[in-house]
Amino acid sequence: MLYYRFPGEDIVRVNGDFIEVDNFDIQGFIITDFNQKKKYVFQEAAPQSAQQAPLPFCIDEAAYLKQASQLIKDLNHGIADKIVFSRVKEAELGPTSPEQLFERMLKAYPQALVYYFHDTCIGSWLGASPEILLERTPNAFRTMALAGTKLAGENRDFTYKEYNEHALVTEFIEGQLKQIPGAQLQVSALSEYSQGPVTHLLQELTWQMSQSTLPLLLKYLHPTPAVAGLPQKVAVQYINATETHDRAFYTGIIGNLVTGQEKLFVNLRCAQVQGEKLFIYVGGGFTPDSVAEQEWQETENKSKTLLQLL
Fold first, then answer.
1. CA distance linking residue 144 with residue 253, whole number of Å
2. Domain boundaries in the chain?
3. What Cα–Cα distance (Å) separates residue 87 from each residue in 18, 47, 97?
4. What is the rounded distance in angstroms from the CA atom of residue 39 to the CA atom of residue 31?
5. Residue 265, Cβ neighbours under 10 Å: how many?
6. Is pLDDT of 168 > 80?
7. If one looks up domain 2-307 in CATH, what number appears?
8. Rounded Cα distance, 310 and 289, in Å
9. Is-contact 13 230, C-beta < 8 A?
10. What is the distance between the alpha carbons of residues 83 and 68, in angstroms, rounded to a whole number?
């Protein structure tokens, strides 16, 4: 079972399951893990295979702050310019069913990809992601450079650390897109983008490319510094070696991969449903200027995307 709604479109509700694939020759609604090692396509006639996903590990505040402090030291020793560190927060669904939470998310986040699926192969997940990884428009492709976080309505300017964090994301995406022959890359002015309880810095990038370039671009564009870090390979290796949980589908790719109608998002503000519990995945971008306690609070703020709807 899969429910989803793209911004400005109607809700889609279909029955079926995800099937694992080696590549996306089979097109449709897709989802990948963070590393793009596991890829799935939804099919209405997919065979069911009952599995129970293990409960994700939820790090406590003291352990998080210890790891975050070490990460900041490593960054100041020059290991990388930025690394995104994530965690999982456990919550009780209470009287709210996943379907009810999905309906509330639809109303609360009209500019996000909102989805819920219950699948016999990969479990039950829901989310409301504002971040476009790649979308085909009538005249071009577009993506978002989205980074830096403060509370919506917070009466302060973005900090140097937050502007720097965003600049790293934009520069990385620009560098990847400029390698496309005839890209005619355009970058929008810097703006603020509010989605629920938090506000981010945003720039949109548009470009031209042939259809054959798309699979290679997805490989090199994702994961972006907004969800991994920079340099990309160093950040991914650090995350895989250090985080105490499996990110699974958090910060993976999700959306429609249909030729001429591509609309792919980065899977943010998402949660895994297991029984009466909700396991919310949240993260924050660390640079040498980060403060561990502030990064913990940022993840607390991001978790409110779902918690405030329970």
1. 14
2. 2-307
3. 25, 33, 23
4. 6
5. 25
6. yes
7. 3.60.120.10
8. 34
9. no
10. 10
Nearest partner of 112 among 33, 36, 194, 223, judged by Cα: 194
- List pLDDT tens digits, range 225-272: 889 999 999 999 999 999 999 999 999 999 999 988 999 999 999 999
Tokens representing 293?
A: 């306690």
Report pLDDT for 52: 67
